[in-house]
Amino acid sequence: MLFNCDFCHQNVQMYEEKEELVTIIKQAAKERLQMEKQLAKIRPNPVSLEGTVGKCLSLSSGNSKVKILIVSFESNILKGIF
Q: What is the gyration radius of the CA atoms in the chain, in angstroms?
């Protein structure tokens, strides 16, 4: 009878340890998911990055055209004044 009681105690202890391990694993999984979400927010998305590069090139091209128009406008003003 004493053997059965010791065996039951061991089973209860193993079950409690198993539950604790399951809880630890679940918590670790939640923390990892949270960190992955945070990293996803921080890391640039390659598709988004390509779009950003395209926008920058487009703006740069537009800026160049505006600069040419400004120089031309200033030149015409100076010709009209002098």
A: 35
